[in-house]
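writing this on my phone so excuse typos. first protein, seq and then structure
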Amino acid sequence: MSCAIGHDSAVPEDYLGVWQRTLLRLADGTEDRSTRVFWLQTGHSHADLRVPDPAPATPLAHAALAGFAGLTRVDGDRCQWHRFIDFHPDSPVDIGNMTFIHADEVHETALDNSYLEIWERLPASVGPVREQWLQAADNPRRRGCLLQAGDYFLFVADRPEPLAGADSLTSRLAGASAGEVTALLSCEFSLGRIRGASMPWEIQLSTLPGRAGKMLTAPGPDASDNWPDSVWAGLGALVPAGGWQTSPAPVLMPEESSL
């Protein structure tokens, strides 16, 4: 009989906060410094948002967006991001070797040295962290989460019908009807500030067009651990028919947890 691995395996405190990628360098020398990439890490969970600059202008171009959320496992200098919600359903296993240059800069290299990513921690993200996972009341397969680090939050909501199978998002979008395209792109990753923006809980970057500049929720700057169930139920742009319910974090099986 297998057993689940959950909140007994916290990541080291050095990882906590919001990290912005400042450089991606591939083995062939190709570099990317323009894509806006943010990784929010709590004690167990992560969420990652990647938006090209400029943002995609057409539905098919939205395949250039990326985002994922799940559980993080750290073993020595090696880190693995287990994805439970993913904008791209065919993403490969995500493991990197991590080298801390100092407290607020970490370099991630591929196990095969095919890439280098440089991450810098945002000062306003240093502080208390919180993670709350969600489940659609009308569809237990649909997950969401709200992660917080310091003054930042990252809200994630899977598509109303989570994608299964190994087909890429690009291949699914090709030839899809307008309604199918909308459904395929209805996956929300919204990053923002809790108090340090022009309004409380202001979204500043999102996979969904038109979400930037909106409020995630209306209660104001109060800590989310004081929110009633009714607030959690209505989070996001694509609220489930029965609302969201708070739920335990997903779990890893032993065969998934080894690096």
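second protein below, same order as before
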Amino acid sequence: MFSCTPESCLENTTSSLEAIFYSYTSKSVAAPDSLSISLIGKDTSVYTKVQGIKTAKLPLNPSAGSSSFSIRINGVDDTIIIFHNSYPHLISRECGYAFYHNIDSIMFTAGKMIDSISIINSTVTTLDEDNIHIFY
């Protein structure tokens, strides 16, 4: 007689870009009064009128060289386009693969609510690490 225990994945298998919001005037972390973020071209909302959020997790498209987001901060609309390269990364035998991304550059609609965006860590993995800072 024998027993077979199925192996399970206990690790995070989703890589998300972490964007932290900063006040342009004070240069400190500051949650917008209201935040909405949607994927452009997919009609998918990532956040809808949330309050008190200082860090947003954004999914990047592994099958394209860029990911575009419509972002509304305190009622003002902006667009962010993140140019990236994606590649599969083996998490473990039990968990399989996840897509990791390298950020090449970022474009945004300057002059509206967003003042600037800084790339802090260009590698987007399954770890919770700061990738970009959005100053508004």
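DSSP finds no helices and ten strands in the chain. thats all i got for now
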